[in-house]
C-alpha cells in the first residue's frame, strides 16, 4: 500500500482545525457571561487569571536566562581555576627550584622532578620560605633514597 499523500493525510487529521492556545492572543478569548470577570475559558475549563500558567515562550525565556547564568558562573569559576593553576604549575615551581640553587643534575633537582608531578607537593613547596625549600628537597631525597 503506498504512503498517503500529504494532502490526504492533512484532510484525515484535520490539521487546520488545531490551534496552539499559547500562541493565541488573549484579546481573542472571550469570557463567558456567567463567568466572573478576570477568568477565561479554555477547552471548556474556567481558569482564573490568578491561577493562569505563564505562556510557553515566557517559561522558555526564563529557563534560558537560568542556563545563561549557570554558564557564566561556570566560565568564571573555570577562569579562576586556570589562573590558580598557573601559579602552581610544574614549570613555575621548577623555576623556583632552580632559584633556590637546586640546579639540574643535583639530588634536590632530581627529587623535585619526581615530587612536583603531584599538585599537593608543589603547593607544599610553594608555601615554604625560600631558605627552607632546598633543605626540604634534600630531606625528601634522603628519605626516599637513603643517603
Summarize the helices and strands and which ones pair or pack.
Elements: H1 6-13, E1 39-42, E2 45-48, H2 56-87, H3 90-99, H4 107-115, H5 119-126, H6 130-145
Antiparallel strand pairs: 1-2
Helix pairs in contact: 4-6
Report on this model:
- The chain is mostly helical and 147 residues long.
- Helices cover 56% and strands 5% of the residues.
- It contains six helices and two strands; from the N terminus they run αββααααα.
- It has helices spanning 6-13, 56-87, 90-99, 107-115, 119-126, 130-145; strands at 39-42, 45-48.
- The protein has a two-stranded antiparallel sheet.
- Strand 1 and strand 2 (45-48) form a beta hairpin.
- The longest helix is centred in the middle third of the chain and has 32 residues, at 56-87.
- Residues 27-32 have low confidence and may be disordered.
Structure summary:
The protein is mainly alpha-helical and 147 residues long.
The low-confidence parts are 27-32
For the termini, the CA-CA separation is 89 Å
- Strand arrangement across the biggest beta sheet: 1-2
Main beta-sheet annotation: 2 strands, antiparallel
> How many strands?
2
Q: From the helix content, strand content and strand pairing, which structural class follows? A: mainly alpha
Fraction of helical residues: 55-70%
Order of helices and strands: HEEHHHHH
Report the C-alpha radius of gyration, rounded: 35 Å
Name the shape in a single word.
rod-shaped
User: What proportion strand?
Assistant: 5-15%
Amino acid at each position: 500500500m503506498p504512503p498517503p499523500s500529504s494532502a490526504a493525510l492533512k484532510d484525515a487529521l484535520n490539521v487546520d482545525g488545531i490551534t496552539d492556545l499559547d500562541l493565541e492572543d488573549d484579546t481573542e478569548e472571550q469570557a463567558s457571561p456567567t463567568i466572573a470577570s478576570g477568568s477565561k475559558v479554555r477547552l471548556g475549563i474556567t481558569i482564573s487569571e490568578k491561577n493562569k500558567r505563564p505562556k510557553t515562550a515566557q517559561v522558555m525565556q526564563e529557563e534560558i536566562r537560568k542556563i545563561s547564568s549557570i554558564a557564566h558562573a561556570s566560565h568564571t569559576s573555570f577562569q579562576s581555576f586556570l589562573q590558580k593553576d598557573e601559579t602552581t604549575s610544574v614549570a613555575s615551581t621548577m623555576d623556583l627550584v632552580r632559584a633556590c640553587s637546586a640546579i639540574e643534575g643535583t639530588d634536590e633537582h632530581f627529587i623535585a622532578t619526581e615530587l612536583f608531578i603531584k599538585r599537593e607537593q608543589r603547593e607544599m613547596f610553594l608555601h615554604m620560605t625560600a631558605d627552607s625549600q632546598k633543605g626540604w628537597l634534600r630531606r625528601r631525597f634522603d628519605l626516599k633514597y637513603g643517603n
